[in-house]
Amino acid sequence: MSGSTGGSMSGSTGGSTGYSVGQVAGFAGVTVRTLRYYDTAGVLSPSGRSPAGYRRYSDADLARLQQVLFYRELGFPLGEIAALLRDPGASVLDALRARHRELSAQVAKLQRMVEVAEHAMEVQRTGVELTPQERFEVFGDVAFDLSYATEAHLKWGDRAGYQQAMARAAAHGKEDWRRLMAEAAEWRGRLLAAFDAGAAADDPPVLALAEEHRQHVGRWFTPCPPEMHLRIADDYLADARAFALVVPVAEQRPGLAAYLHAAVHANARQQRQQEQQGQQRQQGEQGEGVDR
Questions:
Q1: In 10 A of CB 255, how many CB atoms?
Q2: How far apart are CA 273 and CA 267, in angstroms?
Q3: Per residue in 171-209, pLDDT tens?
Q4: Percent of the chain beyond pLDDT 90?
Q5: Model confidence at 140, in pLDDT bands (50, 70, 90)?
Q6: Which residues pair with 57 in a beta bridge?
């Protein structure tokens, strides 16, 4: 720091020993008032005075100021800083560890607040008209990602199915959402059980689960033909944010999104085959009627 002030203390102060309070304030990026407060609080007192009685700071004072500012940046109160500086043998490491724990807790709390704010913005975008307490009661661990909702709105906002789904969501009351989420949780439990048991994605019970999911979307949001269900499943596989709407992160397993994706595709093939068979039967019955 002395190099940045023109070399020696005497050279930087026009012949007087030490740095003036204004110079130190400029070096450290603090106010003169702050330095005077540190002096009064006994955290940083200048080593000398000029003949006129003005504060003069030495290089050692500036080094101490750097320590003070470091601890202040970490949020230590001045009294604790003064104690640490008075006793070089004090357990600075213990103090830093304690502060680290406090900061980590604060970071976790702030992150949770960010998530709550994003959740609230997400709810506004999706039109779910519930109070914050009701949203947590209803949705629990199911996460709503604002960035995903925004992208979905930009991607599908002009589609009739998306608009209908948003309108239906906005019309749901608290009890509707409670029933919807309970239904989804019960279905999710059976999906996880099938996956954990090693059932193949195209086993009949798993296909039935895929079909239940398709019917769930149609019942609560918008008609969901197999083609639409395929697009939804593709999104689950391509975007973790979308899959988290179906299976909370805490309940996910490696490969589960691909498993559901495969089941939905297998179910769509089965639905198309059944539809074709139904059409063929209908045509055959119509032909028999003509023969009669």
A1: 10
A2: 10
A3: 888 888 889 889 999 999 999 999 999 999 999 999 999
A4: 37
A5: low
A6: 19
pLDDT bin (cut points 50, 70, 90) of residue 275 is confident
CA atoms within 13 A on the CB side of 201: 15
Q: Which of 71, 66, 68 has the alpha carbon at shortest distance from 96?
A: 71
Q: Which string of b and e fits 90-119 if b means at least 16 CB within 10 Å?
A: eeeeebeeeeeeeeeeeeeeeeeeeeeebb
Q: What is the dihedral of CA 153, 157, 159, 163, to 10 degrees?
A: 90
What type of residue sits at position 117? Answer: A
Gap between the terminal Cα atoms of the chain: 107
Which residues have C-beta within 8 Å of that of residue 174, sequence separation ≥ 6? 130, 134, 138
What does pTM read for this prediction?
A: 0.48
Contacts 24+ apart (CB under 8 A), 116-122: 118/144, 118/145, 118/146, 119/143, 119/144, 121/146, 122/146, 122/149
* Rounded Cα–Cα distance for residues 233 and 246 (Å): 11
Give the residues across from 56 on adjacent strands.
20, 48
Contacts of 160 by beta carbon, 8 Å cutoff, 6+ apart: none
Which tokens belong to 4? 């940045």
**Distances 181 to 71, 136, 140, 253 between C-alpha atoms, Å:** 48, 12, 9, 20
Q: Does residue 119 sit in helix, strand or coil?
A: helix
CB hemisphere CA count around 286 (13 angstroms): 6
Q: What's the rounded Cα separation, in Å, for the pair 153 and 164? A: 13
Q: Label each residue of 53-95 as H, E or C.
A: CCEEECHHHHHHHHHHHHHHHCCCCHHHHHHHHHCCCCCHHHH
The CB density around residue 209, as the number of other CB atoms within 10 Å, is 24
